[in-house]
Structure formats: C-alpha cells, structure tokens
Amino acid sequence: MKPKQATYTLIIVLVLLFIFIYKRWQEPLRKEAFDRTPAQLYYTKHALCRMDCRQISRKDIGEIMRKGIINFNKSNRRERPCPTFALQGQTSDGEKIRVIFAQCNDETKVITCYNLEEDFECDCPSGGSGHAPSTLRQAQYKLSSGQIPLPN
C-alpha cells in the first residue's frame, strides 16, 4: 500500500468515526426504567405490616423512591402485568433499606421493604412460605383488598 493511499484511508476512517460519535451525542438519553414520581402510590397489607415491624416510615419509602438506586439483580422488569423494581439506599435517618415496588402504567405499589443492616422477626402473612413474595404474581391476592393510597 502506498503512503498516499494509507493517508486517504486513515482520513476516511477518522471522518467515519467522527460522524459516528457525533450521531451518538445527538441521540436522546434512555428513559430510566423506573418512574420515580408516579401518579398513584399504594401500599399492600404485606408492605404496611413489614413497615410497621421494621420501623420504616412512609417518608423513608418516599426517600428511597426518589433517591435510591435500582438493584437490577433483585428486580424483575419482565414481570407481567407490572414489572417489579428493587430500590435501595440510605435514608436521612441513616437506615439502609430496600423497597420492592411493582410499577404499572397508572400506579405504583409498594410490595415489601427490608432493613439491610438489621433482621427483624415479623409475623406478617406472606403466602404460606414465611418469606416476602418474590414476584408480583405471588402477591396479587394481597393487592385486591389491601391497597391504601398515599395521602396528599
């Protein structure tokens, strides 16, 4: 290959690389998977029981919803009818908690919550296994009569 041809090839490759990078910068940012400001927020009976047992307030839940990080290893975005998201973080009180949300198009449900630093012995109904439901489908029976809207 002649030096002149190598120079032209290098220039063409650099121009194509520049165009690719420029086009990528022009793309809109991906929308976050979890809506942090839902129109409706409900608490299941199970979530309210766990919150009471573990001393987690609605304020703490709201803080984690706004500022917590999404733990995709504990989330199930393919869950139907509503994907579940595990958000976790530290509250202003210093508690490290994880909250499991089920997010549908028009509402968000708090399924359960955990204190990540301290184990609590809770006597909450959970479908027979003694553990919190891992998917929304297992928790559906709780949602039919256990929805309590968040007061404004």
Topology (elements, then pairings):
Layout: H1 3-26, E1 41-43, H2 45-54, H3 58-67, E2 69-70, E3 84-90, E4 96-103, E5 108-115, H4 136-143, E6 148-149
Parallel strand pairs: 1-5
Antiparallel strand pairs: 1-6, 2-3, 3-4, 4-5
How does this model look, in words?
The chain is built from four helices and six strands. The protein has 152 residues and is an alpha+beta fold. It folds into two domains: 30 residues; 109 residues, no CATH class. The protein has a six-stranded mixed β-sheet with strand order 2-3-4-5-1-6, sandwiched between helices. Strand 4 and strand 5 form a beta hairpin.
- Compute the average pLDDT: 79
Quaternary: single chain
Q: End-to-end span in angstroms?
A: 73 Å
Q: Provide the gyration radius in Å.
A: 23 Å
Instruction: Briefly note the structural class of the backbone.
Output: alpha+beta
Quick structural gist:
Helix content is 34%, strand content 20%.
Search tags:
2 domains; 152 residues; disordered C terminus; elongated; six-stranded mixed β-sheet; alpha+beta
